[in-house]
Amino acid sequence: MAEPHDTAAPPVTGRRIAGLALPALGVLAAEPIYLLFDLAVVGRLGALALAGLAIGGLVLTTVSSQMTFLSYGTTARSARFFGAGDRPAAVGEGVQATWLALGLGVLLVAVVQAAATPLVSALAAGGEIADEALPWVRIAVCGVPAILVSAAGNGWMRGVQDTVRPLRFVVFGFAVSAVLCPLLVYGLLGMPRLELAGSAVANLVGQWLAAVLFVRALVVERTSLRIQPQILRAQVVMGRDLVVRTLAFQACFVSAGAVAARFGAASVAAHQVVLQLWNFLALVLDSLAIAAQSLVGAALGAGQLTHAKSVAWRVTIFSTLAATVLAAVFAAGAPVFPSVFTDDQSVLDAIGVPWWFLVAQLPVAGIVFALDGVLLGAGDAKFMRNATLASALLGFLPLIWLSLAFGWGLLGIWSGLSTFMVLRLVFVGWRALSGRWLVPGTG
Predict the structure, then answer these.
(1) Membrane spanning segments where (predicted)?
(2) 59, 78, 137, 400: which sits with the fewest CB atoms below 10 Å from its CB?
(3) Are residues 366 and 282 in the same domain?
(4) Is 345 left (phi over 0), alpha (psi -120 to 50) or beta?
């Protein structure tokens, strides 16, 4: 462990934070943008193909999203070594995370291939949709190791405060997929017409190209590529806490969708529109949280506790201001923005309730997401797990299921989401003020 040395460090300016956050935002936004393009291409094959893509995409997203610790956990560990001036050790965290990504990826491919038929049938209720989705799933799931390798690559590169190369790698991979997708789906320029399966092949090629670029970045660092069990164990321990945290989020949002569906088509449609906007805005704010992870981890690795606190408050202020501006924009646009997504009057009538909850929550989310980044950068994964579980069990889930029991509708569901955010604010705010996350060194 490096000895703490609270020496002066260069001030964290808005330009420095933006220099890390903007490329990170590009990486976060690249996949949703590509998926919209993929949706548009497949959509011209008809409703059945689109339904098959929806089911297949749900399987792939659910499988790969459980492993986000390969990115966030690796950033926290790598940033500490980088801050301590030990770049080889920082990159070494990326090497071990990449081995872990490959091992977990191969295991997940085997499990999904074995369970693909009953899994897809259960999700699609059998029939033609399941028949359409199954080939897509069998092809696309072979990209899971590549997705996880890219996540690990993003993790260590953010740790060494390089968010530009990951953006290039990810954009290149998705660009190749975007070119291949219509060619393979429709059989253009002499390519075979694969229809929905062509979407899966295009996806697969782009993911593996990006993964190869991330692996190449490790190789050129000239760091040992040997497996180191001790580091792997430490990464798995942190990963365990972050996986539980992710599962808590998913349990909440799946429950919210299921309950909204029981209040009718208009309610679930309104809920889905506002939730997708919420997810997009969360990506915007999460880019600032990624900057906080990298900068806080580096400061703690260097033993610069005062600097770490300065980073935490500076990023939190920026994130809160950004969230407040977004809230003002969506408040002003309330009479107009919903009609961009639907012209169904019943949905427009229902959308008002979640819309104003979204507006009210955004400033709170700005603080919460920034402090999430600070605490994840400090490696405080166990506390983050416990805080998320407590907020879900005390706030979100009870109100969601009470909404179903008492017919509170979207008012109850979004009250649950707001309570969840407020409880998280209380937990992470207390932790940040307590200073218990200020643990110097690389251990």
Answers:
(1) 17-37, 43-63, 97-116, 136-157, 169-189, 201-221, 242-265, 277-300, 312-333, 353-375, 387-407
(2) 59
(3) yes
(4) alpha
Which class for 372: exposed (0-12), middle (13-18), buried (19 or more C-beta within 10 A)?
buried
User: Distance (Å, rounded) from C-alpha 239 to C-alpha 76?
Assistant: 11
pLDDT band at 443 (very low <50, low <70, confident <90, very high): low
Helices (H), 220-344: 229-261, 265-301, 305-332, 338-341
Contact 212, 145 (CB under 8 A): no
Residue 1 lies in a domain: no
Total domains in the chain come to 2
On whether residue 2 sits in a domain, the answer given is no
Specify whether the CB–CB gap between 347 and 296 falls below 8 A: no
Taking alpha carbons only, the member of 266, 284, 265, 253 closest to residue 353 is: 266
What the block records as the tokens of 316 is 């939190």
Phi then psi for residue 3, to 5 deg, are -75, 140
Local confidence band at 7 (pLDDT 50, 70, 90 cut-offs) = very low
d(CA 366, CA 100): 32
User: Is the separation of the CB atoms in 297 and 80 below 8 Å?
Assistant: yes
98-130: pLDDT as tens digits = 999 999 999 999 999 999 999 888 777 677 888
Whether 243 and 209 map to the same domain: the answer is no
Question: What's the token pair of residue 209?
Answer: 């190209």
3-state SS assignment for residue 86: coil
Count Cβ atoms within 10 A of the Cβ of residue 229 and give its class: 0-12 exposed, 13-18 middle, 19 or more buried: exposed
Find all residues with CB under 8 Å of 211, minimum gap 6, and list them.
145, 146, 147, 149, 150, 153, 173
Q: Answer yes or no: are the C-beta atoms of 371 and 380 closer than 8 Å.
A: no
